[in-house]
Amino acid sequence: MYEAIYEENVPVNVAISEAVALAGKYALEPDVSFVNGVLGSFAKEQEEKQ
Q1: Low-confidence residues of the chain: pLDDT under 50
Q2: Which end of the chain is less enclosed by CB atoms within 10 A, N or C?
Q3: What is the pLDDT, as a whole number, of residue 47?
Q4: pTM of the model
Q5: Are 39 and 2 in contact (CB under 8 A)?
Q6: How big is the CA angle at 42 (ends 41 and 48), to the nearest 5 degrees?
Q7: Using an 8 Å Cβ cutoff, are 16 and 2 in contact?
Q8: Helix 12-26, helix 29-49: angle, nearest 10
Q9: How many CB atoms are located within 10 Å of the residue 10 CB?
Q10: What's the confidence (pLDDT) of residue 30?
């Protein structure tokens, strides 16, 4: 979320993909789905603000 908010040179979808990949490496599948869902909702909210 930091990258998506403060790093203007990193697209939101790239930041989310990186976070989901990290979750896939260190967490169980249900956790990966949760992270993806939360960040997906965050991305939609950011698009609505712009």
Answers
A1: none
A2: C
A3: 85
A4: 0.82
A5: no
A6: 90
A7: no
A8: 170
A9: 14
A10: 94
pLDDT at position 50: 75
pLDDT at 5: 87
Question: For the purposes of burial, counting CB atoms within 10 Å of the CB of 49, is it exposed (0-12), middle (13-18) or buried (19 or more)?
Answer: exposed
Q: CA-to-CA distance for 49 and 21, rounded, in angstroms? A: 26
Taking alpha carbons only, the member of 16, 22, 18 closest to residue 36 is: 16
Inter-residue contact 1 to 40 (CB < 8 Å): no
| End-to-end CA, the chain | 16
The pLDDT value given to residue 24: 95
Joined together, the tokens standing for residue 6 give 């403060």
Task: Please report, for the chain, how many H helices and E strands are present, in that order.
Answer: 3, 0
